[in-house]
Amino acid sequence: MKAYLGKMRGERTPRPRVGWQDACWSWLGAFTGMAVICWLSTAWLSQQLLIVGSFGATSVLIYAAPESPFAQPSHVLFGSVLSALVGVGCYQWLGATPISMALAVSLSILLMQLTHTVHPPGAAAALIAVAGGASVHKLGWWYPLIPIGAGCVLMLIVAILVNNLARHRRYPRYW
Q1: What pTM value is reported for the model?
Q2: Are 120 and 106 in contact (CB under 8 A)?
Q3: Which of 55, 77, 114, 160 has the smallest C-beta neighbourhood within 10 Å, fewest atoms?
Q4: What region holds the HPP transmembrane region domain (predicted)?
């Protein structure tokens, strides 16, 4: 029992600090990526079709932690799209019920782990597919492609362009 409880204390290792320059690069990437998606959604598509809450969390990973395995392109794109497919399937099968929401999140995690494409915002995309309301539900099986797939591709393009402008950054680490 002592060993079990001891694990909960964490480790006493120093936390890495982010310098102001790195924080500014992260800001530039996140601002540019979200601005592109929001502009395309409102100006070109005349609606908020590409704006999804999980994109905020994706922005944190690909712009502020681009070295993370969860931020690599295959994880971002396939983890999100596969999870969105799971979410739509759960909604189609069980509606917007608590069990459907729990299944969407848990099955998307299972699928991402089995396909080696874990991207935490993917589970949010699955949950949004079930709990997102009528505007998401009417997209049906298009939801994994537009907004999820298209939005991820746009953010990845910006991440590749902006992250590689900084001399000390390299993105992606792997495809």
Answers
A1: 0.90
A2: no
A3: 114
A4: 16-172
